[in-house]
Structure formats: structure tokens, C-alpha cells
Specification:
100 residues; mainly alpha; 5 helices
Length: 100
Amino acid sequence: MSVARNKLLAETIDDDEYIEIKKDCKDQIETLEIQLNILLEQSKVDIPKLIDQAIESLTIIWKTYSEGGIAVKRKIIGSIFPEKLEFDGNHYRTTESTPS
């Protein structure tokens, strides 16, 4: 739509072409929204069940960590600290992200 709008403003296309492009975009959006709603209805995600599973997992995370191997421990720590965790011999710290 923004490309079409820019072309209309630059007088590269006329009003009728812009209206046609706008209608096509609107039709595509409506079709995609219908498809999305169908997918959401088919998935039937049980949110309360997912919340219960998450709470249960969090309440036993200490047990999972203490009984797990190194791969499990790394996965748990990685989920808590998405930045790289560093150990300098005395202290742990996370690296600071620098804005791009």
C-alpha cells in the first residue's frame, strides 16, 4: 500500500489504479485474516492447561537442575540468562548488549 501511495503522490499511477491496488490489498488482508482464524480455531490451544504445566515446571525447577546433567543445567541457565553468562574465575556476569 505504501508503494502504491507513493506512486499516486508521484503521479506515476492514477486514482483508479490506486483504488484497484487498495481494494486488492484489502481483499488479501481479509483472506489472510480468515485463514488465520481458521488455524486458530483448529489449534484449540488449552491455555489453562499450559499455564498449569508452566507453574508445575517452575515449582520443580530446582529439582530438575540438581538432578540434571550438564546439558540440562546449561539449558535452564540459558533460559534464565538469554545473554551470554561469563565466569572470570571469581564472579559470574552476563554480557551487556550494545545497541546496533
